[in-house]
Amino acid sequence: MNEIRLPSIALLGAGSMGRAILSGLLAPNVQVDGPIRVTNRAAASAELLPRSEKVTSLVTSEDPEANRTAVAGAAIVLVAVKPHMVAELLDEISPVLEPGTIVVSVAAGVTTATAESHTPEGVAIIRSMPNTPAMVGRAVTGISAGSRSTPEQLEIVRGLFSTVGEVVEVPESQLDALSTISGSGPAYVFLLIEKLTAAAVEKGFSAEQAAQLVNGTFIGAAELLRQSDKTPEQLRIQVTSPKGTTERAIGVLQDARLDEIFIEATDAALARARELAGG
């Protein structure tokens, strides 16, 4: 496993995604310059953080200066609060952001232009869109450069998110579309698992048996795809014997215009992302 070296980091907001990113930063092969300063609004949330000498936890309800203390001198500031809180938080910390600081937004719908308007000229803004498999080190994270960031700064952020999975760099104009695929994608997979499990129960299997059958099948199929040099289409054809049972089932799904449904679903998600971006 390659060693990853990162400059000093502040993490503002350690909800489920923030904690997932933090777990990647605490991996044995990751070296961060100095302690990772993490802020939360409540002490109860701070209690959920990993116990590590590499983490300094600050609570804003107990210390009004916590966010500014966390970011002072940090080379990377990860903003992982809810989207509606981002502008106010950036206004709060802007006076102590040093030139050359990289502010990385994990908030959906907040454009780099918006973030840049709330930070000093010398501060770089980079948007990111990780997904929930970051919790197990299997994220796919999209990153997009702002107008003030350099290729070197983008590479640093790529290294940061590589601690929790794969990283895809796209123009910001594509980041909302990316969010409809990889960002929302785990929910689509879980929905398919949920419905196939219900079908198994309807066929007479117990809930436990159905979960074992379906969960194991999805995990096994994903691992087969990961290890194979074949495309998903080729693997599907490999399972689908001519005139067999699988072919009949696939025909039902195709007759239900599954391909069009996924396009409609992701279009709906993209429309909502644009609504959020527009305020």
Automatic annotation (TrEMBL):
GO molecular function terms noted in the UniProt entry: pyrroline-5-carboxylate reductase activity
Pathway: Amino-acid biosynthesis; L-proline biosynthesis; L-proline from L-glutamate 5-semialdehyde: step 1/1
Keyword 4Fe-4S: no
This protein's record includes keyword GTP-binding: no
Localization annotation: Cytoplasm
Domain of life of the native organism: Bacteria
Annotated keywords: Amino-acid biosynthesis, Cytoplasm, NADP, Oxidoreductase, Proline biosynthesis
Domain Pyrroline-5-carboxylate reductase catalytic N-terminal residues, every copy: 9-109
Residue span, Pyrroline-5-carboxylate reductase dimerisation domain: 172-276
EC main group: oxidoreductase
EC number(s) per entry: 1.5.1.2
PROSITE patterns named among the record's database cross-references: P5CR (PS00521)
Annotated transmembrane regions: none
A Pfam short name: F420_oxidored
Catalytic activity: L-proline + NAD(+) = (S)-1-pyrroline-5-carboxylate + NADH + 2 H(+); L-proline + NADP(+) = (S)-1-pyrroline-5-carboxylate + NADPH + 2 H(+)
Family statement: Belongs to the pyrroline-5-carboxylate reductase family.
Function of the protein: Catalyzes the reduction of 1-pyrroline-5-carboxylate (PCA) to L-proline.
Name of the protein described by the UniProt record: Pyrroline-5-carboxylate reductase
Lineage: Bacteria, Bacillati, Actinomycetota, Actinomycetes, Micrococcales
